[in-house]
Structures are given as structure tokens and as C-alpha cells.
Amino acid sequence: MNNLNSKNNSDTEFEYALRRMQAKADSQIEADRHLEKVILDSVKNKVAENKQTHRMINWTSWTALACAVFIAVVSVKLMQPDFTTPDEHYIALSELSILPESKKPEFIVRLEHEIAQNKALAVSLNQELRDELNLLEQTYIEQPAQPLYSRIAQVIKEKDNNKLVYCQNSQSFVYRRQSKTYKTNWQQITRQVQLVQVVFDQNGQIVALEPIPNTVTCPV
Amino acid sequence: MLKLLKFPFWQTADVSSHDAMLRYIQSEDAKWLEALVHQHQTALYRFLVQQSDPQLAADICQQTWLKLIEKKHLYTEQYQFKPWLYRIARNLLVDEFRRSNKLVFDNEIELAGEGERDVAILAEQLDCLDVDIYQQALSQLKFSQRESLILQLQGFSLHQISEIVAQPQETVKSRIRYAKQALKQILANRLKR
């Protein structure tokens, strides 16, 4: 037991002596003031350099962002028909705006769902539709209180007939209706492959077709 | 006096190293780094000199502070500044040793068999010893033992040393024990002459 105690004491003393010796050894290693100055200079330079780089990065990232926004705007303008500033010529009925989700009538919700599922039937541009529209065009125009809705569709030419196929990546619109006379221009619609607004009344009945000039493909 | 005028001691002197580092990260103001260099550079240099030579130690010191700037984003609230700084320096030194094939990592199994013969050396004998002899004895220790021992003698805790050398505390403890035994052995042999 005594031996153990004396060993512990000598270990502790050795430990302290070692620390004293290490402190002595440390103090003999002279602090290199020149090195410290060199380090301070290089540290200052590095910090300044970093700040400069950050500024450059900020500047270049803002420029890149501005370019990206510009390209995006130009691309959208080129690829999609301009719905926000409608041309009076083809929006003959009235102004239209995107139909908000909360105000969508049931038939639009159903139609959108079917379009999304590729189950929406193509509308045949046949004589029957022409006759129906001729009757309805006068009717709905005379009821200005009723809202009108629309979806964009593409006119697809077939051998003997043309049909309308609803575009998938387009919105549904609502017309701010005015009392204006409107008649579907069948000649214009069937003349070439193009996009048209398929106009519905509140019950989902097609009441008019409005060509969208200079557009042939659905929005991507 | 000149030193006090040169450096904004009234802003940095009463701030801990940890806080100074956090403030540097936040503000990127070099004055906080300058304060840290003043506070830690000498001890860091002494630690590195004892592991290598003055030229390499100076080089590693410089690299360490630049690396610290580069890696500042990795420093978080949970760290302690001094062990973090030493860990960077130690890694750079090890990399340098590896590049120049100077480093032979100790085999822990080999270590386990070592130092079983404990040699008695009196504290008084150690006190009377020439520092150069002590330095020579230290330089004969294996790298991993020497670094752990010096770190402990410089005041780092086991936990901090374990962070610096990236080894479990138990390993560090063993290394220090074997380092002391080996040191005793070397010094005892020296004293016998």
C-alpha cells in the first residue's frame, strides 16, 4: 500500500516536473515576431481579397439574374399567346382574365380534370355545331348578366373534317362580358391550323369560338 | 504602448477567442483575426516547432491562418477556438509529413506492448535537467505520442486533444501514458551516463 502511495506521489511529482520542463522548453522557443507580421499581412490581404471576391460574386450574380429574367420574359412572350393585353380584333366579346380556382364552375373543373387525364373529347367542327352556335350566339349575347368561360383549343385538320383539341397547359378564362354582337367567323377558324378560345356559358354549353391570331401551337 | 495604439484592444481585448472568431465570421472585419493571431500565434508556433523544425513550423503557421479564413464557414457555436485552430494546424502538418514521407503512423498494437517497464525518475532530477536534453528526449518519441503529450502539457484537456488529433479519448490517454513512460526511460538512460 505504501509502495502504491509512494508511486502515485512520484507520478504526480513527475507530472508537475514535466510541466515545468515543458514550460521552460516553450520559453526557450523564441516568438518569431517577423513571422507574426508576415502572417498578419497575409491575413489582411486574404480578408481584403475575400471581400473583393464577394463583391464580384454579388455583382456577377445580379447580372446573371437580370439576364435570366430578361431571357425568361422574352421566351414567354415568344412561346405563349399574349393574354394579358388582348388584341381587340380577336377578343371581340370583351376582356378576359384567368379564372380563379375558387370561382370555377363545376363543368370547368370537370373539363380541366378530363383534359389533364387526356380524356377530354375532341370537339368536331361540324355542321351540327355551326347550327347550334348560330342559335346560341344571339341568345347569350342578349343576356349580359351571365358570365362566360373559355378554354384554349387547337384546330386540328383531318381529312374531311376539323376538330378542336383542348390544350393541356393552358388556363381557363372568364369573360368580363359586354353586350356586343358576336358571330363566329367559321371561315377564319377553319382556314388554317391555329388556336381558338372555346367560349362556354354557365352550363358548359359552347356558345362561341374566337380565333387567336398568329398562334398555332398550345402553350408549353 | 505602440501595440495598444495600433490594435483596437478596447474592442478586442475583453472578448474570448471563440467570440472573436464568431464576430469575425459575422463582420469579416480583419481586426478580430488580428487579435486572434496575437493571442495564439506564439503558442501555435511553439507546438509546431516541437513537432517539426522552425522553417516548416513557420510555413504551417502561415498556412493555418489562411486555411482558417478559408474554412470559417465551418466554425460554429459548438466549437472551441483553440482546439479548432490546432486541429487545422495539425492536419496541415500531417499532410506535409505525408507528402514528404516523413510520417510513420504508430501501430496501436505495438504501442500496447510498449512501456510496460516503468522506470523511476525523480522530479528533482527532471528539474535539474538541461532543456536541450529534454527536447532531444521528446524528439525521440513517436509522433502520435509526442503530439498528445505536448498538447496535454500545454494545457489542453483529454477531450480537446481527442478533437485535435481526431482520435477517441481512450487512445489519447494511452498515447500520453506511453509517451510519459518512454520519456522516463529515455531520460533515465541519459541520467545514467
Summarize the structure.
The complex is a heterodimer of chains A (220) and B (193). Helices cover 48% and strands 18% of the residues of chain A.
How would you portray this structure in words?
The complex is a heterodimer of chains A (220) and B (193). Chain A has 220 residues and is α+β, with helices and mostly antiparallel strands. Chain A has helices at residues 2-28, 33-79, 106-116, 127-141, 186-191, and strands at 95-98, 123-124, 148-157, 162-166, 172-176, 195-200, 206-212. In chain A, strands 1, 2, 3, 4, 5, 6 and 7 form a 7-stranded antiparallel beta sheet that branches. The N and C termini of chain A lie far apart (90 Å). Chain B has helices at residues 2-6, 9-12, 17-27, 30-51, 54-70, 81-99, 108-113, 123-128, 131-139, 143-153, 158-165, 169-192. Chain B has 193 residues and is an all-alpha fold. Chain B folds into 2 domains: 14-99, RNA polymerase sigma factor, region 2, helix turn helix motif (Rna Polymerase Sigma Factor, Chain: A), CATH 1.10.1740; 119-192, Winged helix-like DNA-binding domain superfamily/Winged helix DNA-binding domain (Arc Repressor Mutant, subunit A, Orthogonal Bundle). Chain B is built from 12 helices and no strands. The model of chain B is unreliable at 1-10 and 107-116 (pLDDT under 50). Helix content of chain B is 74%, strand content 0%. The relative contact order of chain B is 0.11. The chains are: A alpha+beta (220), B mainly alpha (193).
Largest interface: chains, residues each: A-B, 31 and 38 residues
The portion of residues forming beta strands of chain B comes to: under 5%
The poorly predicted ranges of chain A are 82-92
Number of strand elements of chain B: 0
